[in-house]
User: Which sequence fits this backbone?
C-alpha cells in the first residue's frame, strides 16, 4: 500500500529542533494528536488534515507553506 | 503500541485460540461420546462462544483521564482514518465470504453432487453469518496491524 502523504513534504523535524529542540511527544500534545502521528508525518507517510496543518504552522509561528510543500 | 493495535492483537489471539480449541474439541468430543468426527463437529461449535471475549476490546481504549493521556488524545484524525480503512477491509472480506459461501453451498449441492431437490438445513444460515463475523473480525484486525505497522513502535502508514 502506498504512503498517504499525497506528495507532501514537510519541515516539521527541522522546525522542532529550531523551536527549542521540542520533542515529538511535546509537539503531539500541543497540536492534539498522538506521537505516532507526528512520527508518520515526519517520515512522510501521512498527509495531515488542513486544521492539523494550520495548528502545526501556528505553533511554530510560520505559514502553512513554510511547513508543508508539495513535490 | 496504540490501543487499536492492542485490540487487534487481542482479537487475533482470541479467535486464533478459539479455532485451535475447536480443532481440539472435535476429536475430543468424538472420543468422549463415541461419535464420528462429522457428528462431533456441530456440538464442538460451542467453543466459538469464546469469541464473545472480543467484546472486551473497548477496555483497551480506556485511559485514566476520561479518554485523554496527558494532553495526547487516544484517537486522533489518523487513527480514525486507519480505523475506517480497517473496517472497510473487514466489510469487504465479510461480503466476499458471505456471497461465495452462499453461492458455493448451492453450487456444491446442485452442480457437483447433482442434488436437484435438496433441503439446506436452516442452521446453515446463522452459521454462515457467524463465520462471516469471524472473517470480518480477522480481516479488520489484520488490516489494522498492517496499516499501523507490525512493530510496537512503528508509526505505520
Assistant:
Amino acid at each position: 500500500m502506498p504512503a498517504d502523504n499525497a506528495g507532501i513534504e514537510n519541515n516539521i523535524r527541522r522546525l522542532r529542533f529550531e523551536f527549542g529542540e521540542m520533542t515529538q511527544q511535546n509537539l503531539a500534545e500541543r497540536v492534539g494528536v498522538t506521537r505516532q502521528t507526528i512520527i508518520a508525518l515526519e517520515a512522510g507517510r501521512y498527509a495531515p488534515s488542513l486544521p492539523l496543518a494550520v495548528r502545526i504552522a501556528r505553533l511554530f509561528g510560520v505559514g502553512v507553506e513554510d511547513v508543508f510543500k508539495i513535490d | 503500541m496504540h490501543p487499536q493495535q492492542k485490540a487487534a492483537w487481542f482479537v487475533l489471539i482470541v479467535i486464533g485460540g478459539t479455532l485451535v480449541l475447536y480443532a481440539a474439541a472435535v476429536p475430543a468430543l468424538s472420543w468422549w461420546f463415541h461419535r464420528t468426527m462429522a457428528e462431533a463437529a456441530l456440538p464442538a461449535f460451542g467453543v466459538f462462544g469464546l469469541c464473545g471475549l472480543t467484546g472486551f476490546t473497548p477496555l483497551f481504549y480506556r485511559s485514566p483521564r476520561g479518554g485523554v493521556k496527558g494532553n495526547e488524545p487516544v484517537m486522533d484524525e489518523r487513527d480514525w482514518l486507519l480505523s475506517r480503512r480497517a473496517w472497510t477491509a473487514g466489510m469487504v472480506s465479510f461480503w466476499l465470504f458471505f456471497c461465495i459461501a452462499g453461492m458455493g453451498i448451492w453450487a456444491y449441492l446442485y452442480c457437483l453432487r447433482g442434488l436437484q431437490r435438496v433441503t439446506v438445513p436452516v442452521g446453515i444460515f446463522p452459521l454462515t453469518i457467524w463465520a462471516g463475523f469471524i472473517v470480518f473480525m480477522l480481516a479488520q484486525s489484520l488490516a489494522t496491524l498492517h496499516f499501523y505497522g507490525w512493530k510496537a513502535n512503528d508509526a505505520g502508514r
